[in-house]
Amino acid sequence: MMEDRILLAHGSGGKVSHRLIDDLFMKAFTDPTLNRQDDAAVVEGGARIAFTTDSYVVKPIFFPGGDIGKLAVCGTVNDLAMSGATPKYISAAFIIEEGFPFTDLKTIVDSMAKTAEAAGVAIVTGDTKVVERGGADQIFINTAGVGILPGHAEVSASNISPGDAVILSGSIGDHGIAVMSTREGLSFRTAIESDCAPLNGLVAALFESGASVKALRDPTRGGLAGTLNEFAAQSGVSLNVDETAVPIKAQVNGACEMLGLDPYHVANEGKVVAVVAADDAEKAVAAMRTNEYGREAAIIGAASEGKPRVYVKTMVGTTRILDMLIGEQLPRIC
Amino acid sequence: MMEDRILLAHGSGGKVSHRLIDDLFMKAFTDPTLNRQDDAAVVEGGARIAFTTDSYVVKPIFFPGGDIGKLAVCGTVNDLAMSGATPKYISAAFIIEEGFPFTDLKTIVDSMAKTAEAAGVAIVTGDTKVVERGGADQIFINTAGVGILPGHAEVSASNISPGDAVILSGSIGDHGIAVMSTREGLSFRTAIESDCAPLNGLVAALFESGASVKALRDPTRGGLAGTLNEFAAQSGVSLNVDETAVPIKAQVNGACEMLGLDPYHVANEGKVVAVVAADDAEKAVAAMRTNEYGREAAIIGAASEGKPRVYVKTMVGTTRILDMLIGEQLPRIC
């Protein structure tokens, strides 16, 4: 049954979020493109274009390795890249609390411009709303994005077959821990920086390798566990992950232990999970390692026939089921 | 000089808003498409497509004649239509305060779906963020939109020439007064309903008439005065408006008098200002009147050589300069 009121868990990227999407939005907005539930909508426009949106409510708005502006550009660039599209155009819509320091807005806007330039996308349209003091917490940014789909791109979370290889581009949990460690009320501080980065170049390198790419997703809210469970569910396969192959920084592991978190559930903003045909896996990894954001790319597992579940072989040789987060881990991570 | 902090006036659509856009955003995001400052970005994508975004923070979220969801779909459909595009695809991104009633969210989402269907657009992608209690005021919605530009469409606020006719589709001030009259703290209540409506059909009828359409804009924040001043400034012409030709409902006039507002500054959400070649004006008006949202369409003035200003000939025969709003009239009208 649905809850009466919106809970923080409804924004978590976990099970409660999925229920909200399935029970409310997918029922109300019955469009076949929306129904695919990929990261960006692919719409006809002469050429095929991809279209996506995300709002950013991260708190604090400045954190090691980035800020809400950089995040807002990277997040939408990455959603387009994950659909196989070449990101081209970005919108920028601000909801700002009255009294917000202008210098902070300038820093954020400059960060967006710099990130857009680095990613090779143009910010072409925008909007600004201001609400009274207390009407919003500092600043929220929505970015929507449009990308062009080249002929080769036919990636979807529902395309995975038994035997396919699962590749991860680098260490997990960096963004979530960077944000959490600076958030008020948490007294420790790690040296971890957010991995926030535009991944379109990395994805382009992967496609240029000629590998048969089945599915792509950036494991943001809900973490690696969320992405793998979505893949398993939408393709109807088991995914088997080797824990020893998944890079986790020592400081991230330490912070997760202190906070009682599973790093597989912690958000990333500069990582990609790519599923490719088994025969192409080595070539895909080699191509990804040529990009600055894929230096640590590695095969972390494979798909097999079976229940749509994710199994992790632990360092001690046992196997655990890696489930999706139920509700909210910590809100406002992106 | 720029202010240190964001003021409500920065979101008003008036002069302070324009300064924020010019001094901050246009300097940071130096894209030639963005620089045109039309309602939607026109981007290349095989076919030419239009791309726009708007966040909606209206308070109260339910008001006579509509709700935040209907407004969010109409507003973005209308921005696309004003660029001459046929609206096709909409995104829907929600920022929701923890504790928001689920039934209200359902009402809003259903309203969006119904409005999208009526407008003939598909909601193809979305996002949901939830912030903690007090982190946002109930619910904010961002919609971005993509439309296809037919060959004939070359409309821009900078295309107006001396002699062109200015057409208004109907009465002004209805949306703003409907929202203000229900807002907490204002004790009167009018029978006025918001004019919130999708205008793509009306614009299509105008184009089908074969009239040479120079500029189109929906006079939302900043009202009719804002739109006319933008037209005058961007085209470098004077605009001369005949007050007796501008329809204003008696209740709207009465409410404006009570509140000390000029109806020319009050927001509309279902009206269009169209500038067409003088010879096509009658045919354009006739075509607009065939659409349910253009029954009261009328020529209200004309462009002439002169300073980029808006002059209103009043009912008593005098002429006044109609200026843009300086700051915020009442915040959160859309």
**Low-confidence parts of chain A, pLDDT < 50 over ≥5 residues?**
none
What is the percentage of strand-forming residues of chain A?
15-25%
The number of distinct β-strands of chain A equals 14
Q: Indicate the radius of gyration of chain A in whole angstroms.
A: 19 Å
The greatest interface between two protein chains, and residues involved on each side, is: A-B, 83 and 83 residues
Explain this structure to me?
The structure is a homodimer of 334-residue chains. Chain A is of the alpha+beta class and 334 residues long. Chain A folds into two domains: 31-148, PurM-like, N-terminal domain (60s Ribosomal Protein L30, Chain: A), CATH 3.30.1330.10; 157-321, Alpha-Beta Complex (Phosphoribosyl-aminoimidazole Synthetase, Chain A, domain 2), CATH 3.90.650. Helices cover 30% and strands 25% of the residues of chain A. The first copy, chain A, has helices at 15-28, 32-35, 68-82, 102-119, 174-182, 200-208, 223-235, 250-259, 281-289; strands spanning 41-45, 47-56, 62-63, 66-67, 86-97, 122-131, 139-148, 165-168, 213-217, 238-242, 273-276, 298-304, 310-313, 319-321. Chain A has a seven-stranded mixed beta sheet. In chain A, strands 1-2-7-5-6 form a five-stranded mixed beta sheet, covered by helices on one side. In chain A, strands 3-4 form a two-stranded antiparallel ribbon. In chain A, a hairpin with a 2-residue loop joins strand 3 (62-63) and strand 4. In chain A, helix 6 packs across helix 9 (281-289). Chain A is globular. The mean pLDDT of chain A is 88. Chains A and B meet through helix 1, strand 1, strand 2, strand 5 and helix 4 of A and helix 1, strand 1, strand 2, strand 5 and helix 4 of B.
